[in-house]
User: Fold these one by one.
Assistant:
Number 1:
Amino acid sequence: MFGKGIFKGLKITIGHLFEKKVTQQYPEERPVLPARFKGSFDLNVAKCIACGLCSNACPNHVIKIESVKDENNKKKLTGYKMLAEQCLYCGFCVEVCPTKALQWNHDYERAKFFRDEVNLDLYAKYTPSPDDDKKDIPEKNVKPEEKQDESAKAS
């Protein structure tokens, strides 16, 4: 019969007319994001060792790291900038970070009016917390005598 397809389509459309609405009113209702959502970047400056692996892993070379050597000849981070307007958001920089200092966050509202505001200065935006000084991995309780025995065995 001619027009069977039209009636099938109208049947489906009318069926959806009486279902529960799924539209979110965006500014008032925030979407529930999954735990693995990739929005923007967060940097824990206290964890960062300024190794430069993230800038080397970036295919577009959008990460610029500034560092100085301290009195113990260790690198200390002094600046971390990302040209987010050219970023692919591929996540290579997050994956390669050995200390997990660079992480994804749930910030999905990244639209800006001026192009210069899109770029991220993760070092300047960092706010230190009291937990930064604490070690992630506690040292084992080793007596001083055992340390001397281990160093003597190594010699």
Number 2:
Amino acid sequence: MNKSVKLLMLITLLNLTLASCQKNMEQKEYSWTAAACTPKNYPAEIFSGHLLLGTKPNSAYVYMPFDRIIDSENLGENGGSSSGLATGTTPKILDITWMSYTENKSYSGVFNLDSDKIEALMINGSERPYWDVATKKVGIVKDYRFVINTGLFPGGIVVLYVFSQSNMTIVGRYQAHEDKNVDWKVAHKSMTDQKGIDEYVNYMNEDLPQEIKDQIKNGTIPFGYWDTLFQTYSLTPLVKAEDKVETIKLNYINGEFESIFLSLNNNVMPIKKRAAPRKMNIVWHDINDRRMESDVYFDEKKIKALFEQTKPNEPIQFVIEIDRNTKPRETTGILIKLKTNDREIDLQKAIVSQETFTKSIPY
């Protein structure tokens, strides 16, 4: 091999190495904090919780929020956030012990996490549009900040979510075991024995709705219900081109949410499995091309029952029909139905409320 060929190969190798280094330098490292959530009116308190960054007991960790009551308004909300932070790495193990107040039971579990699945959601960041006031143009920001949110359910169910500004995604479901050896007096001095624990738990449950108090009294907490919320469907939202829909944000009954920025991706609707929706926010244009924003709220049990009328694995269109003459503050104007190959299911009876507003900027 002559000297000129060797020199060319060396230069090429150096250029490739430099490009790789520059790419790595440009790549932002993701970071995340920890949070916890519960179904509404089923409060919990974490006694001890850690998201371990390695597989050994002495690994570094981000601690879970503790010494506070967690009772989320909606499943999946980032309640009880901790101040711990991890950068450029994902958790490998969840080690957690908590009190389920409605059951007066403690649960514990050590769970191996799907760290590859978690990292896949974080490593490339989460893109979302924003309105640049100075330039009066739409820009794109890529967020590298996330929250790993641990859902604590009666019966010891644990569901792990990854939150970004644009999406909340489930990455795992686990089952904890009842733990009768938790030394709760470390957290609360009055909980020195079972009597003290019972008195404290009863006090914490005093302000729960009567329906939940009756469940506690009668032993009718609906343990199997929450697993039914995680049923997903081959569901695709459908809108008309003339409605000029810019964004659809869907909150689902399983605690996930999704932001669909149609105006940025040539109106292509992502194909994926989705749970039944709990809330929809949609930005569209009225008959005068004025930008409008509508919120639609669904009753959880009613929407779930209507979705359960569909056949397993059949393709379903989530058809959104907009009356483009709808005025601001009106509480009608959005019609929604499910459409399959052989029938339609009207979802209006599951809508609790809806309202429309003007929206001056797109995002």
Number 3:
Amino acid sequence: MLSQLALQHLYVRHPAAAGQAAWALRDLNLNVQAGEQIAVIGPSGAGKTTLLHTLACAQRPAGGEFSLFGQDPWQLSSAARHRWRRQLFLAPQTPPLPARQRVVTAVLAGRLPRWSLLHAVRNLIKPAEPQAAWEALARFHLQHKLYARVDKLSGGERQRCGLARLLLSEASLLLVDEPLSALDPTLAVQTLSALQQEAARRQATLICSLHQVALARSHFSRIIGLRDGAIAFDSTQVSDHMIDELYRNAGSAPSAPPEEGDAAAPLCGDPRCF
């Protein structure tokens, strides 16, 4: 079966270390089939966010092979790659939502890839599908904030607003970075369940980075452990010993890769929702 995405010996240079032998990701090998749901765990600084941004084509690899939907996105023109991105959605930990925008408009931005420029401008003046936005927010218990301004939301509410936007996309690859970091335990479980149910409903692939190891183990059958920019394990049977080893003495410096090629600059310095 053809993988939806495949990485072979992938290297990604840390954006802040251009010209230096510092790798955010190194020698990654990964195959993901359409419809899989995968949790990515690991210590802070392990490379989880960089991995998601790389898969979203927001950061260009420095070496190795990267295949997404059967082709290398970096072989496409910039315009073609931008059109092609409608197949995926990146939800950053802190969604870059305009502060003065109303929640309904921010959520409906998930429809932008399918709208014309004129329709998108009209939506800024009068929301085109307020009922759809309300229903998406309701999945995350946030429907009462439909017409609130984004800058009036708490951190956890902003996170859920960004995830409601995801529900209105048509993406078949959902990349979600630490969606539970500002949520209480009850909301965290409800939010994670809503994401997984949506991915299953549309048969989309879900790759979610998490700091909550217990939730990763209880909700995902496949877990990837990332440490120092490398995959420590990729397994459906994650033991307590594997978890202990993954987090033991976290923060140790990564070893240098075998070879250092020419590094390409990131596509953008501030990855966004797609």
